[in-house]
Design brief:
It is a single chain. By secondary structure, the protein is of the alpha/beta class. It has a single domain, classed as Divalent-metal-dependent TIM barrel enzymes (TIM Barrel, Alpha-Beta Barrel). Helices cover 45% and strands 18% of the residues. The strands form 2 sheets. An 8-stranded parallel β-barrel has the order 1-2-3-4-5-6-7-10, surrounded by 4 helices. It has a two-stranded antiparallel ribbon with strand order 8-9. The radius of gyration is 17 Å and the shape is globular.
């Protein structure tokens, strides 16, 4: 089956802050199948459910800050269950000592146990610093070895940015990988750009996602050169759909 395509709403965060309902409706009108949340902008679970019902969009997952889970684990997970989300993604963590990462791993084990009781999977989303925080150590692999039932949402852009061979790393950890983040990379300056406008092998990423039978492909963009975030999101879904059709024909 072809994967569904979602937008990580951080990509259009300013639009979400201005009018969350309109931003979600714009995502639907662009042709996305779903969203990955990055905050709820004061909405209740019932309001989120109604907005999803009205738009027909599904939840690919939600980025939930480490601090929220650490400080209000049950309340946070109960909210995610109430909106029907089955993937909670810790979007960022950074520590300059091994002890810091060990403490984080202990917390993730606790989070994962509580999440699984609610039918929720716990994910971690990488950037590039996980390969440089501790000299000569891959802290993503460290988490893989030290946290039970932890999945990865692999941001392929950031693997490339870190100088890691994306395909070798993914193949070595494929049992724990459930999602990919898609964005392209321009060279000067080095920053994210629209799919197809940069140097990353996006089609090969889609082929790898097919091999791993991923249910969702998630678009994210953090830097914008000439297009507005909404314009870029629209261009990205059109390009990714085109590639998906080619790969799955």
């Amino acid at each position: 089956m072809k994967p569904a395509i979602a937008l990580q709403l951080w990509s259009i965060k300013d639009d979400c802050e201005r009018n969350f309902d309109d931003a979600i409706k714009n995502v639907r009108d662009m042709g996305y199948d779903g969203v990955e949340f990055a905050g709820y902008y004061g909405k209740t679970a019932d309001e989120i459910n109604q907005l999803l019902t009205d738009t027909g969009l599904e939840i690919a997952g939600s980025h939930v800050p480490y601090e929220h889970l650490r400080e209000a684990l049950d309340e946070t997970l109960d909210f995610e269950k109430a909106i029907g989300n089955t993937r909670v993604v810790v979007p960022f963590a950074s520590f300059q000592t091994l002890e810091g990462w060990e403490g984080f791993a202990n917390d993730l084990n606790r989070f994962s146990q509580s999440a699984s009781k609610r039918g929720i999977e716990l994910y971690y989303h990488n950037h590039a610093h996980e390969f440089s925080d501790i000299e000569n150590q891959d802290m993503l692999s460290f988490l893989n070895k030290n946290v039970e039932s932890l999945y990865y949402e692999v941001d392929l852009y950031w693997l490339s940015y870190a100088g890691i061979n994306e395909f070798d790393w993914v193949d070595a950890h494929k049992e724990a990988i459930g999602l990919f983040h898609f964005k392209d990379k321009q060279v000067t300056p080095v920053e994210s750009t629209e799919l197809g406008a940069g140097v990353l092998p996006i089609k090969k990423y889609v082929e790898k996602a097919k091999e791993l039978q991923m249910p969702w492909l998630i678009v994210e963009q953090e830097a914008f050169q000439t297009l507005t975030p909404l314009e870029a999101a629209h261009q990205n879904v059109n390009k990714l759909k085109e590639i998906v059709e080619e790969v799955h024909q």
